[in-house]
What we know:
This protein has 221 residues and is an alpha/beta fold.
Amino acid sequence: MGIKLRFSKKFLKKGMFFILFALLLGIVVIHNANSTIHKNAEGKLYTEVDSIPKNKVALLLGTGKYLKDGQPNLYFRYRVEAAAALFKAQKVDFILISGDNSRQGYDEPTDMKEALVAMGIPEGKIYLDYAGFRTLDSVVRAKEIFDLTALTVVSQAFHDERAIYLAEKYGIKAIGFCARDVDKYSGMKTRLREYFARAKVFWDLSLGVQPKFLGEKIDIH
């Protein structure tokens, strides 16, 4: 019994060591990913329409109109308001909405388009990308499908930073217009998820991950 007990304790200590090592490694990876993406966006984010340079197209990153509990999604509202402000200030000529439309009854691009039109944005100035299932897909498709080499990303600042980093890695000159953020309590889950999403950026880039769908080119004009 004594030998078995010492044997079990030995393996338990080794197991705890590897768990702690994995946790520490994960923290380092997430920290470095977050720091790299944040620093890369310095000087490329704008909060005022008066100061942001003009681009032909704004890439409005999609999100759901409602939360899972049925309440209005403030990320949706603030992103749409930011895109409308850019267009009305003549800082972009077109708005490309890229979002998820992968299941019945859920259509981020169309919902955002309807909200923009209700704000007075001409329907003919809005283009939709229904295959923007995640930020990487939205960015790469902006180049490969819509032939964009420069754009203004519209989302909350933390999301803009990640999109800009990805855009530059795929040869797109990008700046970000920061939509109003939600309060820290409401956005806590999203912020936590963002840390892991930033770490995944480097995994996807190292593996050369491509969008789920590509397709024929669409000319924005």
